[in-house]
Amino acid sequence: xERYSKINEKRKREIVLLRGKGCVYKKCAFCDYHxxxxxxxxxxxxxxxxxLSKVTGEYGDLxxxxxxxxxxxxxxxxxxxxxxxxxxxxxxxxxEAHYLYKNKIPAxxxxxxxxxxxxxxxxxSFDHGFRENILKKGISEKDPGIISEHFDEANFLFGxxxxxxxxxxxxxxxxxxxxxxxxxxxMCKNSTPILPDKAxxxxxxxxxxxxxxxxxxxxxxxxxxxxxxGD
Length: 231
Fold this sequence. Notes:
Blueprint: E1 4-7, E2 13-18, H1 41-52, E3 61-66, H2 75-87, E4 92-97, H3 105-111, E5 116-124, H4 128-134, H5 144-147, E6 153-158, H6 165-178, E7 181-186, H7 198-212, E8 218-221
Parallel strand pairs: 2-3, 3-4, 4-5, 5-6, 6-7, 7-8
Antiparallel strand pairs: 1-2
C-alpha cells in the first residue's frame, strides 16, 4: 500500500493516505475503500506519524485522505498534521468528509485556522436518483447550492451503467459552478457489485477527456491509483 506521493500536475501538492478507525457510513454501493482501517488508535497514530514524516512541504500544499472522513482520524494524528504543516510551512490543507459531517466542518475550520483549509466532498453525481438509488451515497439534499455550502471541492464518479456523456458533462459543469475544484474518478473494478461500464468509459475518454484534461480546476483519475497512493 503506497501512502505518500506527490501530485506534479495542475495544482501541485503532496498527498498522504492515512489510516483511521474507518468510515462510519460504509453504505456506498461502489466502495470497498473502508476496509483500510484499524480500531487501535495507537497503531493508527504510529503509522500516520511515519507517513507524515515523509512530507517535505515543497509545494506548501498537502492533501490528506483516509478511508472515510477526516473526522475518523485520531486526535494525535490531527495534532501531528498541524505540527508537521507548521514546521514545513504548509499553507493549504485538503481534507475529505462525508456529507453527514457537514455541521462539524465550521469547528474543524476554526481548529485549523492557521491554514487555508479545503474540504472535499465525495458527491459522485448531482443526479439525485442515480446518486442515492444506485450509488447509495446518503446525501438526501438535492440543491447544489446547499450541498456545496460547507465544501470547497468534490469528487465525482464516472463510468457506470446509467450514465451518459451528457449526464457526465452536466455533472462536470455543475461541479465547476459550485466548487473551486473537482476530481473525476473513473470506476475501477473492485469487490463490490458495481461494475465499470466500458461503453460509458469510452464515451468519457473520447468525448469529455480531451475537452477537460487541461482544465486547471479538474483532476482526472482514469485509474484509482493515479495520484500515486493506494493499491
